Amino acid sequence: MPSECVSTVRCFGGEQHRFQHTSQVLNCDMIYAVYLPPQAAEGPVPVVYYLSGLTCTDENFVTKACAQQYAAALGVAVVAPDTSPRGEGVADDPEGSYDMGLGAGFYLNATETPWSAHYHMYDYVVTELPQVVAQACPQVDTSRAAIMGHSMGGHGALTIGLKNPDRYASFSAFSPIVAPTHCPWGQKAFSQYLGADESAWANYDTCVLLGQATEQRPILIDQGTADNFLEEQLKTHLIEEASSAASYPIEVRMQEGYDHSYYFIASFVEDHLRFHASHLTS
Q: Which end of the chain has fewer CB within 10 Å, C or N?
C-alpha cells in the first residue's frame, strides 16, 4: 500500500517528511522519516539510510542529530526508519526490558516464535523500505545509496552493508555493536530471535562478515572513549582485529571523551554524511 504523509516541515531549504505505511514484510503499520534536501526540487538525489539504536524510533535521529543542515549542503536525502515492528499483536519482551522486543529489532530476520511473525527488519530495510521511499518520494534515487547507524543500528548498517555491497556505496557507524555473538545484548537477542544454534548468529555478526566479504566498500566507524558500553557491549577492538585478519581496510576513529549519546552523534554526523556523499557522487 502507498505511504501516507503524516507531517511535513520546512528545514534548511528542504523538507522533513514523516510517512506511515502498511508493511507487507513486517505485517504491521510502520513509520519512517525522509529528509529531502533543496536539490531534490531540481532532480533525483542520492540517499543515506540511518538506522537507530535500542529504544529509539524514527524520530530520535531526525530531532537530535542536526543532520539536515549537512544533508542540505551536500544534496543527499536521509531516510530514518523505526527500529522494530510496532502495533497490537506484535510480540514484546514479557519482562518489558529495553534490549528485546519493541524498539530492539536488531535488523535481522527472526526465525523463532513468536518473533518470526513480525520481526523481519533485515528484509524491511534492504528490500521494502527502498521501494516505499521511491514510491512516496520519486525525487530520491534509491539506486545511489549508503547506510549508517548508531549502536544496534550501527550493527545493522554494517551487517546489511557487508551482506549487500551491490546496494550500498559505503557504510558507517557510531558506537556499533560489532560482535553481537560475543556481547550480552547480542547473545540475549540472537538466542530469542534466532534460536539456540549459534551458527545462525554468525550471519549477523560484523566481525564474521568482514572475513567473508568478496567485495570491499569504504567503512567509517566513530567510537567514544568515554562510552560506558564500550568494554562490555561494543568491543571495538574486535572489529579492528577482524579487519586486519581479513585484509579489509576500515577507518576506526576513537574519539576522546565522547560517550554513547546523541551529543556524540551530532558532533560527527557531518563527517559521516560527507564520507557517504563522496562515494555516492564519485
A: C
